[in-house]
Specification:
Low-confidence stretches: 1-24
CATH topology of the largest domain: Jelly Rolls
Number of domains: 6
CATH architecture of the largest domain: Sandwich
Mean pLDDT: 89
């Protein structure tokens, strides 16, 4: 009876083992793992963490900073790294042993602010290590992640990459790497490296290690018994606390000074199965008081002894004890019980039966789709797992406004079931919905790990990768296209003459070649422009013919194309604008080349391929919606932009979502022009009639700016000033850009259209969807909508309808007066609530 009761709790066997570690311990693998070193109070922590390199928005935060979440329990000490929107945080790691297994451990959370989603991908040396599914804030504490990996080289870049939608930030803390073989149960922060070296009050390493007391802040992975009078912290080898002995693992050891208990819960154990706990320990020699160690597992004592300093550079004491947990979790606790004594701990390990983990793989993992495009993704479960188990994988989209899962249930989840012993690959489909990037959510049966999540980028542009910037020279196929020969930059063998029209690369089509892309999002029966720039390589000394088809219908055929110039940078590429009317919402666009003279192998250079919807009669402006550049960097200046010349700092951004295009809804497709601070944007326009009335209209907005910033701009057409000193303010989230209409009488057959910006403070103008047409045109009148709510009449119209006044009358056709009702902005609508009283009519008047 007594034996049965003891087995149900914890069964203990204790064995002493000498010399766990011999030889020198490696230096810390991760520099500044807890991001404590160089925080400053100024700039809200917008600094590069010491020892790390960053791309995108980043910083170091502590509680109380602008980018911190009130109430957050920091994972380790006082500070943590922040990565805002899409970006990377990386550090070069060295000293690893190729072929050995390591644990990468870190804590993460997402900022509890402003909406959006966040997915975190982790890689080492370019190889995926693991992924954090939709890193949403579940509590006000950080979440722990342990990712095993086996490096193929002794050095490599450890990289955290964020994929965000909306105004989202990822927080990362307590990053450490320890070597642990298979069969080790996970202990969080087992060698006390996650805190990083001691720092002084300014956040800088002190001149000498006094042993940093972390209490009362958190020490990653460990819980302190608050009833104890002692303290806890970390110390470097040779420091005040770790003043003797050779530290077994890397640089740091944990200490308990005075009476105290550090504990943590070990999860995913096999109940009623024996395990071996090993650890290294020592005592500080300076106090002259020996420490006393008391170790328990689920309250049962596994070690209790007085600890004397090992002295000099001798190895730490080492011990291995056995325990048998009664459940899948066990509380491991280390206590120091002597007043005045200091216990040093390092290199903890638990060896025994652990769940074997198998990686799920997705192919591809980086997907680009157009709106409404459906794309298949393959999921593979290791056959070794299915030989013994069935598997269920749940897939969903954290950003259904960006990408959807085809066949998902009412909750947005699609479950793939893999039967035991069945085929280990299946496919599912995603569909593009709206502009943005999103990593998918994926969860799976126990024993399966998601190492890399698929990331889907949906483009609202009609042509994807239009200037071939998303493709690398020598890599096939070209991103978003099928066929083609290559891409070249200015030093490429085929790019031997002319000026690259947009960005830094062009597509190359050699000999008889097709380059094709399925176009989505067309409106059948509407008129469109297809624009592109083209040239011929001089090297083959042979002309090339080009034919362009859409849905099998020939749009244009250009014969006998010869080089535009004699050297790189000496002449513009040729330009063409083709008008077409699609028969279907999705059509295949194909560029086909063939030699003008049989037996030759000419090469066509193609760039800046774009489509815009434009009605019959509109005057051709090249790249009028700034779509010819494709997916731009968030700060893309000063790259060339097809059809435009600039002064100042221009570039293209997606809006909303990018650094400059940070508010409003782009009027046409995805990209907009930004002009940061002061500058000019100029386009040449021809085919005009002198004395004819024309209307120029476009979408305009401003970047969200610091208080006190003022942005004005001018518009000139040839010698005519169409607008001067016009002030523009940010229109706000989810609201279309303001549509500006300018009517004028033209005075010349050709002219230059010039936008000029003036600023006070840090300002940027955003422009899109530029039209020019004969005649006097007015913006379409906005429509009113009336609904009833709780006996009240609710009248709404778009906020984008600027310059309109709500009027009312009791009898038609006259008697109109301006309404005195209060107008409230709700989202993208103006809202007026009135109490019905008799018959009333309402209209908008400009």
């Amino acid at each position: 009876m007594r034996k049965s009761k003891m087995t149900a709790l914890v069964r203990i066997l204790t064995t002493t083992v000498l010399g766990l570690a011999t030889g020198p311990a490696p230096a810390a693998f991760v520099n500044n793992p807890s991001f404590e070193n160089n925080w400053t109070a100024s700039g809200n922590g917008d600094i590069t963490p010491e020892g790390w390199t960053t791309v995108g928005g980043w910083g170091v935060n502590q509680l109380g900073d602008v980018f911190s979440t009130p109430g957050t329990v920091v994972a380790d000490r006082d500070r943590y790294a922040r990565v805002w929107h899409n970006g990377t945080l990386s550090q070069d790691i060295s000293g690893l042993t190729p072929g050995k297994q390591y644990w990468l451990q870190f804590w993460y959370m997402a900022r509890n602010c402003c909406g959006g989603t966040m997915v975190l991908q982790v890689s080492f040396g370019g190889a995926p290590v693991g992924a954090v599914n939709d890193a949403q804030l579940a509590t006000l504490g950080f979440n722990f992640v342990n990712l095993p990996f086996t490096p193929t080289n002794d050095t490599g870049a450890l990289t955290f990459m964020t994929i965000a939608t909306g105004d989202m930030s990822a927080y990362i803390d307590a990053v450490s790497i320890v070597q642990r073989d298979a069969g080790n149960a996970v202990i969080a922060n087992p060698s006390f490296e996650a805190s990083g070296p001691p720092t002084d009050v300014t956040g800088n390493p002190p001149s000498a290690d006094a042993g940093e007391v972390i209490k009362p802040a958190a020490m990653a992975g460990w819980t302190w018994d608050t009833n104890q009078s002692g303290s806890y912290g970390i110390s470097l080898s040779g420091g005040t606390r770790a003043d003797n002995g050779a530290v077994p693992d890397q640089d740091l050891v944990g200490f308990i000074a005075g009476p105290g208990v550090l504990s943590q819960t070990i999860a995913n154990l096999a109940a009623n199965t024996p395990y071996q706990l090993s650890f290294a320990y020592n005592a500080e020699s300076a106090p002259g008081v020996n420490a006393h160690l008391h170790v328990t597992v689920d309250g049962a004592v596994v070690d209790d002894e007085t600890v004397s300093p090992v002295g000099g550079a001798n190895p730490y004491h080492a011990k291995t004890v056995s325990f048998t947990p009664a459940s899948t979790n066990a509380v491991l606790a280390f206590a120091q019980t002597t007043a005045g004594g200091t216990l040093l701990l390092d290199d903890l390990r638990i060896v025994g039966q652990v769940i074997q983990h198998y990686p799920i793989t997705f192919e591809p993992t980086a997907i680009e789709v157009a709106g409404t495009q459906v794309f298949p993704i393959q999921v593979t479960v290791p056959a070794a797992f299915l030989a013994k188990n069935s598997a269920d994988i749940q897939l969903s989209s954290p950003s259904p406004g960006v990408v959807g899962i085809v066949g998902a249930d009412a909750s947005g989840t699609l479950t793939l079931h893999f039967a035991q012993g069945a085929t280990n690959t299946q496919f599912f489909q995603v569909v593009g919905v709206g502009r943005g990037s999103s990593g998918l959510r994926a969860s799976a049966s126990a024993g399966l790990d998601v190492v890399q999540l698929p990331t889907v980028t949906t483009f609202t542009s009609l042509v994807l990768n239009p200037s071939f910037e998303a493709s690398a020279p020598g890599v096939s196929p070209l991103s978003a296209w099928t066929g083609g020969s290559d891409v070249n930059n200015a030093s490429g063998p085929a790019m031997d003459n002319g000026i690259i029209p947009d960005g830094t690369q062009v597509a190359v089509l050699e000999g008889t070649t097709n380059l094709a892309q399925q176009i989505y999002g067309l409106t059948p029966g509407k008129s469109y422009w297809l624009q592109f720039r083209y040239n011929a390589s001089a090297a083959p000394s042979a002309a090339v013919d080009l034919r362009v088809t859409l849905g099998g219908k020939v749009l244009t055929a250009i014969k006998n194309i010869n080089p535009a110039g004699a050297a790189v940078g000496d002449a513009p590429f040729y330009f063409t604008n083709v008008v077409f009317t699609p028969a279907n919402a999705s059509e295949l666009l194909v560029f086909s080349t063939s030699p003008t003279v049989a037996g030759t192998t000419p090469a066509l250079l193609l760039d800046a391929v774009s489509m815009v919807q434009r009605d019959a009669g509109e005057v051709v402006i090249e790249n009028p919606s700034f779509e010819a550049g494709g997916e731009p960097a968030s700060t893309s200046y000063p790259l060339p932009m097809a059809g435009w010349t600039f002064t100042g700092h221009p570039g293209a951004n997606f809006s909303p979502g990018d650094t400059f295009g940070d508010n409003g809804m782009a009027p046409d497709q995805g990209e907009v022009l930004y002009m940061w601070h002061e500058g000019t944007a100029t386009a040449s326009v021809s085919g005009l009639t002198a004395g004819q009335v024309y209307t120029l209209w476009y979408g305009v907005n401003a970047r969200l700016e610091p208080t006190g910033s003022v942005l004005t701009y001018d518009v000139a057409f040839g010698d005519l000033t169409l607008l001067s000193g016009k002030e523009v303010d940010p229109i706000g989230d989810d609201i279309p850009y303001f549509a500006q209409y300018l009517v004028f009488t033209n005075d010349a057959p050709t002219a230059t259209l010039v936008f000029t910006t003036h600023n006070v403070g840090d300002t940027s103008i955003l422009l899109d969807d530029i039209h020019l047409a004969p005649g006097a045109h007015q913006p379409p009148a906005p429509s009113l909508a009336v609904t009833q709510s709780a006996g009240m009449a609710v009248i709404t119209w778009p906020v984008s309808a600027q310059g309109f006044t709500l009027q009312e009358t009791s009898a038609l056709p006259g008697g109109w007066t301006n309404s005195t009702a209060t107008v409230v902005v709700q989202g993208s609508s103006n809202v007026v609530t009135v109490t019905p009283s008799g018959e009333k009519f309402y209209r908008l008047k400009k």
